Amino acid sequence: MTNFELTNAICEEIRREYRVPSIPFSLEEGEPSLTGSKVGGIPYLPKGAKWPVDEKGAPLQFLAQIDCAQLTALPDHPHTGLLQFFIGADEMFGCDFGAMKTRNYAVIYHETVDSSVTAADIPLPELPQEDCSPLERGPFRILFGAPVEQGITPGDFRFDHLFVQKWNQRKPDEPIERDWDVFELLDEDDDADDLFGYIGEDVPRHQLGGYPYFTQADPREVQHGDLDTLLFQLDSDTRGREFFICWGDCGVANFFIAKDALKRRDFSQVMYNWDCG
Q1: Could you tell me if 74 and 142 are in contact, meaning their C-beta atoms sit under 8 angstroms apart?
Q2: Is-contact 43 188, C-beta < 8 A?
Q3: What CA–CA distance (Å, rounded) separates 107 from 124?
């Protein structure tokens, strides 16, 4: 077996061994119901509740809302109520790029919903209109796909350790320290573009649960490795040449949480990050 073949064999082995449930979804432009799953539009808020604000008191922008009754395939996610995501209305969309130093975003969970609340009851704020939102169009209804068991992606910060351990067990004469070291061990005619090349159809771009993907690197590799669960992922979305959602230069946004906190329904220490190529 060549080093190229061994690399992809190890990748497939890791994928089989490390799998978690994921619910992919797609977006359909149109006005969702007040309590429905959506990206953009008007979120539900209980009567008398104030609109979420950042650490300076400026209003956040509403990103997405999830009807948790649709999440029964994810054992640790809530299965009742609404889960909401708000981000900053600034050029960086409220992101501190993995540092969690600021609170210019919010993840809010409503365990119960008051069915008497209407859109007229929601205190909508005034937000900047130019270049301060990843949503180019909308609002969008979220259309959930069938749940899948997703194998770990090579971008996940845990993948590197798993790969190196398996490689060094099989090739003690050619040990590596990081997964990318195998590029130095390839033959000249190997297609390096196909190495670790299994981010394919089974890796949802929009999803809840599962393993993340990135256009750059996993921010948890440097810090916050305890945030082991992908709560929500929203990718850039294009239809032909038209952008519906765009994170910078066609990037992707992720929200991470510790599994124990998710089970306790404690969303106070969620990491929000987006990156682009």
Answers
A1: no
A2: no
A3: 18
- Find the angle CA(230)-CA(234)-CA(235) to the nearest 5 degrees: 120
What is the widest separation between alpha-carbon atoms in the chain? Answer: 69
Backbone angles phi, psi at 183, to 5 degrees: -60, -30
Q: Which of 35, 5, 227 is nearest to 141 (CA)?
A: 35
User: In which residue ranges of the chain is pLDDT below 70?
Assistant: 98-102, 129-131, 189-204
Residue with tokens 């809840």: 208
**Judging by beta carbons within 10 Å of its beta carbon (0-12, 13-18, 19+), is residue 35 exposed, middle or buried?**
middle
pLDDT score recorded for residue 120: 93
Q: Are 181 and 196 in contact (CB under 8 A)?
A: no
Q: Judging by beta carbons within 10 Å of its beta carbon (0-12, 13-18, 19+), is residue 70 exposed, middle or buried?
A: middle
Coil, helix or strand for 185? helix
CA separation for the pair 32, 127 (Å, rounded): 21
pLDDT of residue 43: 97
> Contact, 147 vs 23, CB < 8 A?
yes
Answer whether 0.85 is exceeded by the pTM: yes
Rounded distance between C-alpha atoms, residue 104 and residue 10, angstroms = 40
**Pairs from 114-120 (Cβ < 8 Å, separation ≥ 24):** 114/46, 114/47, 115/35, 116/47, 117/34, 117/44, 117/45, 117/46, 117/47, 118/34, 119/34, 119/42
pLDDT at residue 91 in the model: 85
Any residues with CB less than 8 A from the CB of 169 and at least 6 apart, and which? Answer: none
The CATH class for the domain spanning 3-275 reads: mainly beta
